[in-house]
Amino acid sequence: MYVKKTSAPRTATLADGSILTIADLPSRGTRWVARRKEIVVNAVAYGILSRDDALRMYDLTEEEFDSWLRAIAKYGRPALKVTSLQRFRQP
């Protein structure tokens, strides 16, 4: 396996002490669950993946990605679960 040369870091140590790598990124066309959404948001936040690359790679809209960012910042990973959307939405 060959790793594409990039100036971005290949790994990042997250706040909880876990290590995120390029290999941890979900595949294209993935089924979105809270954990995979969190991985993409963290990859962008820690510079492993650029925001534009994430939007293009995963065919996301800016609004969708921004909603993930807001949900994680305010409530954490549980807010990304589809079954919990009503609980965490603003009135």
From TrEMBL:
It comes from Paracoccus amoyensis. Signal peptide: none annotated. InterPro entries: DUF1153, Trp_repressor/repl_initiator, WH-like_DNA-bd_sf. Coiled coil: none annotated. One of its GO terms (molecular function) is sequence-specific DNA binding. This is DUF1153 domain-containing protein.
